[in-house]
Specification:
This protein is of the alpha/beta class. It contains 9 helices and 10 strands. An 8-stranded mixed sheet has the order 1-2-4-3-7-8-9-10, with helices on both faces. Strands 5-6 form a two-stranded antiparallel ribbon. It starts with a helix and ends with a helix.
């Protein structure tokens, strides 16, 4: 059941056209929109600048959070936009709810840095994260990798690359509204087009081309929907019922379960793309973050 407040919120979103309805987007404009700094609601949460070689980012540490439980968060933005600044508020909510330190990074973006640059960045940062926290060098009690939309796809691809390179894996992975099928074959691209208030399928080919170039879209790191998940840690997958890429999450969950992975798939009735980021205005967003927190606490 969708809450009354949730229903009203979705109706408000439908009052403006979904992103990409015209079939294209201006990269400069999208980067400007997703480049705004959005601070945590709790002003006591610490935002600590972070640097590693050529990468920048920011730690978010809510009051009382354990700096030795570390979650690497990979932002959305179609592989071409987004930044740590834009996700500080969501990072603060996750840190507070799950009692963990959240590291938001500015991984390299396409088309300047196409596939697999962003995945390489995430893998490198996770390896660093196991021995460094917001307070300096220290072994992690546990680590997690999470992300939304394109960042959800990068989360899964990073887990696959870590496994294939026989590197230390996080305790679990969390994928929100993950973009995982670069072949763009999910039925929900058509069935949910009129119901998704956030994103139109008409702009997705532009994202894919910018990210992959001439790379085979069926490569399992590019499209984790085609991967073998054997040996991966538990996964929490959250997706809204009315997302054009809903089927990406459902297919990944099915594939991972077939590979023997412990998967929790949550398809939220009436919800839309990356709806947890709309907390605290959206009750379902609050509930979804509570579910994320419970998942982290179960494996920390």
């Amino acid at each position: 059941m969708v809450s009354e407040r949730g229903r009203q919120y979705v109706n408000q979103l439908h009052e403006t056209p979904a992103f990409g309805t015209a079939g294209h987007f201006e990269l400069k404009e999208l980067r400007a929109i997703m480049g705004v700094r959005r601070l945590p609601v709790d002003r006591e949460a610490q935002c600590i600048p972070w640097h590693l070689d050529d990468l920048d980012g920011e730690w978010v540490l809510a009051p009382g959070a354990d700096p030795n439980v570390r979650l690497l968060y990979l932002h959305g933005g179609g592989f071409v936009a987004g930044c740590s600044d834009y996700y500080l508020a969501l990072g603060g909510r996750i840190s507070a709810a799950a009692g963990c330190a959240v590291l938001l990074i500015d991984y390299r973006l396409a088309p300047e840095h196409p596939f697999p640059a962003a995945i390489e960045d995430a893998v490198r940062v996770h390896e660093w994260l196991t021995h460094h926290g917001p307070e300096g060098p220290a072994a992690a009690q546990s680590t997690f990798i999470a992300g939304d939309s394109a960042g959800g796809g990068l989360t899964l691809a990073s887990l696959l690359m870590l496994r294939d390179r026989q590197r230390a894996l996080p305790a679990a992975g969390i994928a929100l509204s993950a973009f995982t099928d670069m072949t763009l074959t999910g039925e929900s691209l058509q069935t949910e087009e009129a119901h998704d208030p956030i994103m139109s399928p008409h702009c997705l080919p532009q994202f894919v081309h910018a990210y992959l170039g001439d790379t085979d879209p069926r490569h399992p790191y590019a499209s984790p929907v085609f991967a073998d998940y054997a040996g991966l840690p538990p996964l929490l997958i959250q997706v809204g019922e009315h997302e054009i890429i809903r089927d990406d999450s459902c297919a990944v969950a099915s594939q991972a379960r077939a590979s023997g992975v412990d998967v929790t798939l949550e398809v939220w009735p009436g919800m839309f793309h990356v709806f947890p980021s709309h907390e605290p205005l959206l009750p379902e967003g609050q509930q979804a973050i509570a579910q994320i927190a419970s998942f982290v606490r179960a494996y920390r």
